[in-house]
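Project outcomes to date are best conveyed with an example. Our students and postdoctoral researchers have been running inverse folding experiments weekly, and each run begins with a structure described purely in tokens. The record below, which covers 284 residues, was selected by the lab manager from last quarter's runs and is presented without edits.
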């Protein structure tokens, strides 16, 4: 049995549960009211906690693995293994200053009062830049401190920037880009490692599927080579004869990020009846 900690309620909760659902893992009871539950079809126990506690639980072996924001992990300095970057919960940790304050690089921060909940990350950044500033640790609503006269700059999480704007601040530098991480205790038993590997296999199969499309089209035989060359497929495409003489059906898998470009080129090269189909699971 592998024990996984996820955020009980917050920005990472729904995406964490969805990751498990996509991996075909069913939970025995609705997670909303419970603090722990078991999967019915996978050796996984789920524990619901505050995100700030996850690095410590994983490090101490209270749980085997956890899903936590990189920002929280970096701030807590716990000794855990990052197993996978999960691609959700994206945000950045930024320095921001009042709209009209001058900023010409980190040296503009010299001697300023900076309010933040991320003291360690900020300290590391300032040390690396050889800047001395006065750090004020604040646990929430960091954005209002400059207008209250408590700070000259802030260092905080930003996702869209609208909160900064509403508080008369502008972002001056990004220090860290963060996303949700799957982290593990470094000393997992071989049995737990194996369960973790099975979970990762499913996560990868879903991610590959999401990042690719299955594409099929009808192609005149004399253009087959030219058209096959356009497709940035996994391997060589599949070609099947059509009952109509002189035509074939060509199938392949293409990366999601190029398929619009590829479609235009394929059409221009004489492909007809092009279908693009989502892929449910993909194992490379
Ligand atoms: P908890 O009650 O579990 O302590 P919290 O209030 O500390 O919750 P949330 O605001 O739910 O935490 O954010 C959880 C994580 O989501 C953050 O640590 C960060 O990694 C990520 N995140 C993504 N976008 C944002 C955002 N716009 N603001 C804050 N966190 C964000
Ligand atoms: Zn928290």
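After processing, the design step wrote out the following sequence:
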């Amino acid at each position: 049995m592998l024990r996984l900690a996820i955020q009980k309620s917050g920005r990472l909760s729904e995406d964490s549960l969805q990751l498990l659902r996509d991996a075909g893992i069913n939970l025995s009871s609705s997670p909303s009211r419970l603090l722990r539950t078991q999967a019915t079809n996978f050796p996984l126990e789920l524990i619901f906690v505050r995100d700030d506690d996850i690095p410590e639980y994983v490090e101490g072996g209270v749980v085997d693995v956890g899903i936590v924001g990189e920002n929280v992990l970096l701030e807590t300095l716990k000794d855990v293994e990052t197993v996978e970057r999960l691609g959700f919960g994206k945000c950045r940790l930024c320095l921001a200053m009042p709209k009209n304050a001058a900023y010409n690089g980190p040296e503009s921060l010299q001697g300023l009062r900076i309010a933040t909940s991320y003291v360690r990350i900020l300290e590391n950044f300032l040390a690396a830049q050889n800047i001395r500033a006065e750090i004020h640790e604040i646990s929430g609503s960091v954005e209002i401190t400059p207008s209250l006269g408590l700070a000259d700059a802030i260092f905080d999480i930003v996702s869209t920037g609208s909160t900064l704007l509403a508080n008369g601040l502008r972002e001056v530098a990004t220090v860290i880009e963060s996303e949700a991480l799957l982290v593990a205790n470094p000393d997992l038993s071989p049995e737990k490692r194996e369960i973790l590997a099975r979970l990762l296999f499913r996560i990868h199969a879903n991610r590959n599927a999401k990042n690719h499309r299955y594409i099929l089209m009808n192609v005149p035989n004399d253009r087959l080579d030219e058209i096959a060359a356009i497709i940035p497929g996994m391997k060589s495409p599949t070609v099947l004869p059509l009952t109509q003489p002189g035509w074939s059906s060509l199938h392949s898998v293409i990366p999601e990020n190029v398929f619009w470009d590829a479609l235009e080129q394929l059409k221009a090269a004489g492909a007809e009846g092009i279908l693009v189909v989502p892929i449910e699971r993909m194992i490379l």
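The chain has a mean pLDDT of 94. Residues 7, 10-12, 50-52, 69, 71-72, 89, 91, 157, 159, 178 surround adenosine-5'-triphosphate (ligand 1) (CB under 6 Å). The training component of this project remains on track.
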